[in-house]
Description:
By secondary structure, the protein is α+β, with helices and mostly antiparallel strands. The protein has 3 helices and 3 strands; from the N terminus they run βααββα. It has helices spanning 13-20, 26-43, 88-91; strands at residues 3-9, 47-55, 61-66. Strand 2 and strand 3 form a beta hairpin. The protein is globular and about 35 Å long. This is Histidine kinase/HSP90-like ATPase domain-containing protein. It holds the Pfam family HATPase_c_2.
Amino acid sequence: MTVELALLATPKAVPELRHLLQGYDVDVRLCATELLTNVIDHLGEGTPVTVRVTPTATGHTRVEVTDPDPRSLPVLRAATATDESGRGLALV
Length: 92
């Protein structure tokens, strides 16, 4: 069963999303909240997003977070051991 949630990307929405996805394992919740946090950090607080969690035919779970900005593409960064950010997309 696909779960689809429309929400605003705010710091308060991160733990709320984690709670709404409590039926999923920790990896799914982590991916969804990392993607939501990336929207907050890179597009700004209050950006409307859609979160979709979908089981696949192969037994995996697909996590999608979409936003309205067609110009903003994700960029994978190479974080060092001492960097405090830059790992979100690599985790996903």
